[in-house]
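Input structure tokens:
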């Protein structure tokens, strides 16, 4: 039997995840406690998103929820408290996510100073505008109209424990250390299916919720970032090169599937919940 073994939100794009036992599935991704997945982002002066690709220390920025606040914590500095209530006085700015320009609000001088101290370079905090509608690529969505916030391109990323186990066995046979799932930054982790079965699935059903896998997730060097140390380490992509290249993505090395919510938006899902998997053949 397939079950949901983990739910993770990333309130601030490219910072540490927030594991929860229950979350709401919206068409734009997971929501929990008044926050959305990748609702915030750290940006430079031009509004470009900063990520662990260039700033691995972003992994050390840990989110937590405290009633009406999102708390960010990092080594060597006092926590930063961000109110969840939006201010009409917050200045507008535009966030650049790949080719998309997304309307957002500036997080203010205190957040900018805190992030600059943690990351060692000038940056600001942006929060996605509540009315922002950033469309996913219909090239991969099969014509399904869907939106996301500040993710790289899709509202949900699904992986499986068996896929990670398979990769880790290959790493260990090569004399390498096994990796934790947080290197791949999924939103939902499925237990009880075969390795890479998510690649060949047409639908995941959790009660009234239905998720449609639409695109394999190409991997950049971010899986080489040690999420506990905020430092680059050995990159698993050389091992993945032998078996995870996807011809339909020009040989990109993929792990996990980007998914869309096609039924049950607004429903709660919980860790331990049974998942019915429909294969694509």
């Amino acid at each position: 039997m397939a079950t949901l073994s983990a739910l993770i939100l990333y309130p601030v794009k490219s910072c540490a995840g927030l594991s929860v036992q229950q979350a709401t599935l919206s068409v734009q991704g997971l929501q929990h406690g008044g926050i959305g997945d990748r609702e915030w982002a750290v940006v430079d002066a031009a509004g470009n998103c900063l990520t662990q690709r260039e700033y691995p220390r972003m992994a050390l920025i840990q989110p937590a929820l405290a009633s009406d606040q999102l708390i960010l914590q990092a080594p060597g500095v006092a926590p930063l408290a961000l109110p969840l209530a939006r201010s009409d006085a917050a200045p507008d700015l535009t966030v650049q996510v790949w080719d998309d320009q997304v309307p957002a609000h500036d997080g203010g001088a205190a957040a900018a100073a805190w992030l600059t101290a943690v990351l060692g370079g000038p940056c600001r905090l942006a929060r996605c505008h509540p009315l922002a509608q950033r469309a996913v690529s219909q090239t991969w969505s099969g014509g399904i109209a869907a939106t996301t916030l500040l993710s790289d391109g899709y509202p949900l990323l699904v992986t499986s424990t068996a896929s990670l186990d398979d990769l880790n066995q290959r790493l260990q046979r090569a004399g390498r250390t096994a990796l934790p799932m947080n290197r791949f930054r999924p939103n939902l982790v499925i237990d009880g299916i075969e390795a890479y079965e998510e690649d060949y699935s047409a639908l995941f059903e959790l009660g009234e919720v239905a998720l449609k896998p639409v695109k394999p997730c190409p991997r950049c060097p971010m899986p080489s970032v040690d999420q506990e140390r905020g430092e680059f380490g050995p990159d698993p992509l050389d091992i993945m090169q032998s078996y995870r290249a996807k011809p339909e993505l020009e040989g990109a090395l993929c792990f996990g599937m980007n998914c869309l919510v096609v039924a049950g938006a607004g429903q709660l899902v919980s860790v331990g919940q049974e998942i019915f998997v429909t294969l694509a053949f």
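Helices lie at 109-119, 138-141, 161-173, 237-240. Residues 65 and 71 are 6 Å apart (CA to CA).
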